[in-house]
Amino acid sequence: MGVGARAVQLTLGKERILFGICAAAVALLLLARALPAGPAPLPAGTSMLTVHLLMEMFAVTIAVLIVTVTWHTFDSAANPEGNLLIAGFIVVGVCDLAHALSYEGMPSFLGATSTRRSIFYWLMGRSGEALTLGLIAIDGIPALTRRQSVLIGTAVGALLVWIGSAHIAWFPQTFVDGVGVTAFKASYEGALCLTDVLLAGILWAKAVRRHEPRFRIIAASAFVIGVGELSFTSYGQPSDFINIFGHAHKLVAYALLYWATYIASIRMPYEAKRVSELRAIESEWRIRTLSDNIPNSMVYQVTRDAGGHMRFLHVSEGCERLYGIRAAEMLRDAYVMYDRIEPADREQLREAADHSTGTMATVDMQIRARHRDGRLRWIRVVSAPRPLEGGVVCWDGIQFDVTEQRATEARARESAAMLEAVFDSANDAIIGVDASERIAVFNPAAQRIFRYPADAILGRPLSAILPGDEISGARAPELNLHGRLGASRVRGLRSDGAQLDMEMSVSGLELNGQQYFAAIMRDITDRVRTERALVQYQVELTELTQALLAQEKSTTSRLAQALHDELGQTLAAIRIDFVSEVPLAGPDERARHARVDRLIDQAVREVRGVLAELRPTVLDESGLVQALENELATPRLSAEDLAVELTVAPDLRELRWEPDVEYAAFMVAREAISNVMRHARATQVRICVSGNASALRLEVRDNGAGFEPAAQSARPGHLGMIGMRERSIAIGARFEVDTRPGEGTSVVLSWQEREQ
What are phi and psi of 716, to 5 degrees? Predict the structure, then answer.
């Protein structure tokens, strides 16, 4: 629904008013039918002629008002039915006037007055009204100008007056004195009634469809006049009371038509204008609110006359944020703003305004202005000129604070410069590759490493410096630029054909909708060479360690065998020869022999202790677990104030590992326990043996003082950490030490059988 229609509808109220009028018309008709036939009971001294004339003059007046208002107010383009109303109601007004003047009893008018002539003009007036409303209802409106409408209406009205005055005999008989209306007259009125009621329905539907309330009023008018037509189908005398009811329906219908015309031509445009003004005020308020609330910005209109004088027409409140000046001040004097601009920039702004005045080009520049609080701000000025009368130029523009933006841009430039410096000074090659695997970026380090100048390598495929098998081969599949990204070692290709060992990391990035890959490469040729030499050295050292440990084992076995077989037998022979078989001469001799015997026993025990230290026989005979239990049961451990706990899974007690593995693990455990006893100041040691037939894990943990990891070195006379580590390496095991001052020490040997 339009703005004007909504305003009018609020003025008129609901459709129930129209329904009430229509219901009253029906009720009035029923009342007229219910009254007995006969002359109207008029007040004394009042004739039906007078009442009829007054009612018809009222109808003629309304018809004239409809024509006049429509002529002066209707827009023929927006409301084409206006011209139709002019033509139609000229005819209706003429017929109603002729009807009143030809009513029986009136003075002669273009002939003798008679009921037949009066009825003719009545029927023609009602027919003209029905035709006009019918054309409006079906949108069958001819394209007429106002003058054409007046001419047509006047011509038709004159024709009907001529027929009714000079040739009434052409029209069928409508009334017989003493009898009343003829069948033709009754049928004609009935047809008009049906036509008007049908038009009322069509017009109401049109009002609903087009959301225009005036068509509802016209529909109600058609309905009322249609109902009123039934009052003229059965009277016997023109003075019958029922005629007054019929004319009352006609007057109500005419009033509704004038109401609709008034709404369409005066009230609706007025309401639309009022609403438009309200909308304009609201729109202006919204625009001002919008311009006032744009962050760090000022919206303005400024003019310059032919003499160069500047004046602001509009300034948003943002000027206070930019300059510290209120809008009212700038509207009074534009130069309070220009005085805040730095002198050099003020001159540039003046020159830009001069150029814009001559070329009508948009001004777009950045200036420096001093806020009233003393801060220097960068302000961007964008304004479009338009010429006004008298050589005046008006600029519509916006100014906004770009101080932070410039600071950000400066930081970005600094970052870019720093990045470029890092890019140029980096020792690693930085290479950018596009989605088609062509080189797009090649920094100086890359030029130095691969010995390619930038102009000779840019745009070439990546395979120029990385062979194809290095990009997508099985040895380094993650370097396929269309697959997984990561880091790996690759073989590079120098411009002279030399191969380089490179360490490369790759990452993907997207710039301006294009996919790129950045590769950082480091030349590790020398490092790889050193690593290979170190690996070779470690292999050789391990082989040497294994040989030394094998030699130690062999030497220890031979020494133990010599001590057992030779020194032991020698001591036994001495005891036999010196103690058992020599006769003793006296008490002193026996005492000496007893002392020598004790020394021989001590020597035998010491030899056995040395044998146990060199290679415990329990290790060879019963395995690692039994050897550890036997070691922990020796008197030297029992004498210490040290709680020793051995934890072994039940299924490992009878399990045997390779002899070298058991020997190395036993010697590591013995050395670790010895270190605890000598240096840790511990009160508890836990030894844990775990694993299976193909794996062994030995852990020795104490709660002693611990030490700094840097102190892991051999002490004089002891194997130390280095010795334990070498024993572990010799059997292919991993050796780990976890220690911190005050938190104890954990020594771990982990061995895993190698797959064949």
Answer: -55, 130
